[in-house]
Amino acid sequence: MSLIPSFFGNRRSNVFDPFSLDIWDPFEGFPFSSTVANVPSSSRETSAFANARIDWKETPEAHIFKADLPGLKKEEVKVEVEEGGVLQISGERSKEQEEKNDKWHRVERSSGKFLRRFRLPENAKTNQVKASMENGVLTVTVPKVEVKKPEVKSIEISG
């Protein structure tokens, strides 16, 4: 854990990970952020829930992404592969309805849009991506191109 305070929010992504393309809004939290013309509105909107936690594991057969998305239905999540081999996982968690008689003591759960992008390696079969959702966990499986091992032929030595 870092002893240096983060001036850029609660970002725990690895800046040295070349495959991670997190969406981050440097103007988040500033009062003028909605009036900044140069920052696209999609960037401002996705920063609200950009902290969707995703694990990426590589097995000999595939790249497997697991995202914890509690409370979301599969209809509220979108998985896409863009040209150039970029996997994009996005969705939106709606804010809970507030009643006039409700008194909130604590609000810790995030709501809003989220968007995560990952550049897939060359060995990914982007046309065979599969996704499933079970118990609030999204699993995206990207098969890998099979690497053929060179055939070795044994030569008998005479003499």
TrEMBL record:
Q: Which UniProt keywords apply?
A: Stress response
Domain of life, source organism: Eukaryota
InterPro entries per record: A-crystallin/Hsp20_dom, HSP20-like_chaperone, Small_HSP
Q: Does the keyword Transmembrane apply?
A: no
Domain SHSP residues, every copy: 45-159
CDD domains, per the entry = ACD_ScHsp26_like
Q: Which Pfam families match?
A: HSP20
Q: Which SUPFAM superfamilies match?
A: HSP20-like chaperones
Please state which protein family the record places this protein in. Belongs to the small heat shock protein (HSP20) family.
By what name is this protein known?
A: 17.6 kDa class I heat shock protein 3
